[in-house]
């Protein structure tokens, strides 16, 4: 065994470690900054085209490690510009393991209402936070 062989192994390990760190950094930056930018820039426009109604998203935040998405200031208007839906926040907790299999799976969906619709008069005091949770996983019998 020559003196160059251990040095070559150390260089290879350093290169692999540096590559892994660089990939983790790229994943982190794209997850925290790239995905929210794409959603804010193109998501509302594409959703509006699909629904044929104006859609706006004030702010998006994505955590690539927890796989959670938060949309703030989500509004969907009628074609004539009247407000149809206005949410202070929409939170999604995505199941990473199931999503890697090809089918995005939502573990938790939480909607925070911006205000009550003008047409609906609640019969009792209702909080503005609406939280709907359901476990959508399929259980074998």
In short:
The chain has 141 residues and is an alpha+beta fold. The protein has helices spanning 4-51, 96-100; strands at 55-63, 68-77, 83-94, 106-113, 129-133.
Spell out the helices and strands N to C: HEEEHEE
- Beta-strand residue percentage: 25-35%
* Quantity of strands, as a count: 5
Class computed from helices, strands and strand pairing: alpha+beta
**Shape from CA axes?**
elongated
Terminal Cα separation, in Å?
59 Å
How much helix, percentage-wise, in residues?
A: 25-40%
Mean pLDDT: 80
Q: What is the count of structural domains?
A: 1
Low-confidence stretches: 119-141
Order of strands across the main sheet: 1-2-3-4-5
Largest sheet: 5 strands, antiparallel
Number of contiguous helices: 2
Rg from C-alpha positions? Answer: 22 Å
């Amino acid at each position: 065994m020559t003196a160059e062989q251990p040095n070559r192994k150390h260089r290879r390990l350093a290169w692999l470690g540096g590559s892994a760190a660089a990939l983790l950094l790229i994943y982190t930056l794209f997850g925290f900054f790239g995905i929210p930018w794409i959603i804010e820039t193109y998501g509302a426009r594409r959703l509006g085209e699909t629904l044929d109604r104006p859609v706006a998203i004030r702010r998006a935040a994505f955590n690539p490690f927890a796989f959670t998405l938060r949309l703030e200031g989500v509004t969907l208007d009628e074609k004539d510009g009247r407000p149809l839906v206005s949410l202070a926040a929409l939170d999604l907790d995505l199941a990473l393991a199931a999503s890697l299999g090809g089918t995005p799976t939502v573990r938790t969906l939480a909607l925070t209402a911006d205000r009550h619709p003008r047409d609906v008069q609640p019969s009792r005091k209702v909080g503005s936070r609406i939280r709907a949770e359901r476990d959508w996983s399929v259980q074998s019998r």
